[in-house]
């Protein structure tokens, strides 16, 4: 069964001004205003308010950005992906998520199943937890053999595969279901496995920012939806998470379109067909106008009432022809 697109027409329309948030490094975003010049189902053409964006802001095909819109006194946001650059400060953007209330999130979030494990430190200070994370993330080189100067060739045994866990993840944090009910600001070390083209093992420390009890069956242990903000994380690992989220969004697009979808093929077919039809209609209208003008001139030439000068000229021409000698 084909999944239907969200009803974006409830929130977007031609002429509406929206806020565009471009992702940038250091866990920040760049904001700019834009006017919607074309709206077609899930495709927007945005005219940015400035002709030149600051250095470091990407607008190339495939960049995922955040579009914020106001409606009835409330703010909403939706993720989009740039599918083409139409001209100076003009972007074609395909909407790729639901429109939800804006929560001022730093990064785009997505529901996935990824292998991960976590531990609950007991009796450890925040500095001890940070130092343990640092030692795992940046391990010291193995000691050299004092006699030969060579590093002993003893590779560690491969770790057992991690179980996949349902998670809502972004570059700024993660939400998972836990049996333990943790207090706010508790620190939780996590080990994540990102199934990218080159799989990535990530060590982070999350700080608990939200805990919500979930309904469970009678007789089963309680379950808590726990939101964690990444407190200690290497920026290269954060970039890998953002990349993973972008790849997952493209996979959702492929499922939505029931086939292969690439970045360069995301320009919506109906929009291209609409532009083609508009060009044909404009050419036909111009042809009709020109044909009408030509027909009008011809009709006027043969039916218009001639003036006295013109009649006199034609009469003298006939007299001249009549007086010519016949050869």
TrEMBL record:
What InterPro entries does the record tag this protein with? PilZ_domain, PilZN1
**Upper lineage ranks?**
Bacteria, Pseudomonadati, Thermodesulfobacteriota, Desulfuromonadia, Geobacterales
Q: Which species?
A: Geotalea uraniireducens
**Key words, A-Z:** Membrane, Transmembrane, Transmembrane helix
Q: Which residues form the N-terminal PilZ-like domain?
A: 11-103
Which parts pass through the membrane? 280-302
Residue intervals of the PilZ domain? 165-246
Where does the record place a coiled coil?
Answer: none
Tell me the domain of life: Bacteria
The reply to whether Acetylation figures as a keyword in the UniProt entry is no
According to the UniProt entry, which residue ranges have a biased composition of type Pro residues? 153-164
Q: Name one Pfam family in it.
A: PilZ
Region ranges (Disordered): 136-168
Indicate yes or no for the key word Ion transport: no
Please give the name of this protein.
Pilus protein PilZ
């Amino acid at each position: 069964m084909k999944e239907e697109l969200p009803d974006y027409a409830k929130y977007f329309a031609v002429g509406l001004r929206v806020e565009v948030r471009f992702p940038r490094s250091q866990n920040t975003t760049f904001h700019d205003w834009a006017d919607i010049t074309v709206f077609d189902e899930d495709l927007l053409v945005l005219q940015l308010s400035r002709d030149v964006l600051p250095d470091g802001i990407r607008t190339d095909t495939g960049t995922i950005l955040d579009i914020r819109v106001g409606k009835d006194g409330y703010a909403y946001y939706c993720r989009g992906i740039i599918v083409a650059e139409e001209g100076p400060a003009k972007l074609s953007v395909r909407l790729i998520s639901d429109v939800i209330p804006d929560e001022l999130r730093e990064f785009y979030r997505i529901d996935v199943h990824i292998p991960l494990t976590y531990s609950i430190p007991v009796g450890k200070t925040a500095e001890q937890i940070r130092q343990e994370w640092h030692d795992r993330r940046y391990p010291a080189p193995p000691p050299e053999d004092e006699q030969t100067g060579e590093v002993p060739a003893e590779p560690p045994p491969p770790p057992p595969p991690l179980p996949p866990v349902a998670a809502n993840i972004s570059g700024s944090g993660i939400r998972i279901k836990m049996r333990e009910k943790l207090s706010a600001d508790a620190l939780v070390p996590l080990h994540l496995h990102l199934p990218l083209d080159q799989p990535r093992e990530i060590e982070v420390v999350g700080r608990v920012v939200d805990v919500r009890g979930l309904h469970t069956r009678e007789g089963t242990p309680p379950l808590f939806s726990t939101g964690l903000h990444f407190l200690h994380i290497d920026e290269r690992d954060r970039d890998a998470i953002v990349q993973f989220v972008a790849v997952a969004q493209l996979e959702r697009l492929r499922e939505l379109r029931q086939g292969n979808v690439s970045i360069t093929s995301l320009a919506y077919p109906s929009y291209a067909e609409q532009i083609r039809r508009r060009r044909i209609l404009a050419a036909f209208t111009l042809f009709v106008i020109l044909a009408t003008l030509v027909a009008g001139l011809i009709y006027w030439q043969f039916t218009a009432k001639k003036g006295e000068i013109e009649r006199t000229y034609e009469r003298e021409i006939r007299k001249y022809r009549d007086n010519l000698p016949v050869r």
